[in-house]
Amino acid sequence: MKNLIRLSLILVAAFGLWTAATYVEVPVKADGLEIGDTAPDFQLKNIDGKMYSLESIAKEYEKAGKELKGYIVTFTCNTCPFAVKYEDRLIAVHNKMAAKGWPVVAIQPNDPAVQPGDSMDKMQKRSEDKGFPFVYLMDEGQKVYPQYGATRTPHIFLLTADREVKYIGALDDNANNPDAVEKEYVVQAIGAIEEGKNPDPDFTRAIGCSIKTKK
After folding, report:
1. Which of 119, 154, 166, 183 has a CB 3.0–4.6 Å from the CB of 76, allowing a cystine?
2. Is the dihedral of CA 160, 40, 131, 210 positive or negative?
3. 142-173 pLDDT, tens per residue?
4. Which domain holds residue 193?
């Protein structure tokens, strides 16, 4: 009888371990770009009414006599609570990294007909209120975010100057509390690239709101 009970306990414990292992969350890549791919360029309208592309941003660096090393392409918006929580951190990352050749390129992917708070005039006001130091582009017609494979706001694609994808995912490891961040994924990825290494990790799960489209 004791042996039977002992065997039962062993089986229960083993099942528990198997169940835990089965339900461990693993990041799943969406359709779109993968690490090592070359990201497509685009022509999108900024909040100042001008059209911008990755190439035009590179030319601005060249005219200023600065070296462009890459782009922190970030799909974000006004209305997602997670995007709002990341605004100050995104500003800080741009202020720190743009001078080193790694500017933030923010793109608003939501359809404003579905999410009126993400219209161009609301983007302009949000940028003015927060003092965004980076371009804030509208993905009009929602043509760019599917090419990249963005699924959330915010969702980051770190590219080199020749548009090679080096990192995809979240800005850091704590979407809710900036004071509890332990790993600054994007900053660490840039550091690795500048040392001639590959980022590790090069892919993390983006935490945020789904991109809003007409059904």
Report:
1. 154
2. negative
3. 999 999 999 999 999 999 999 999 999 999 99
4. 30-210
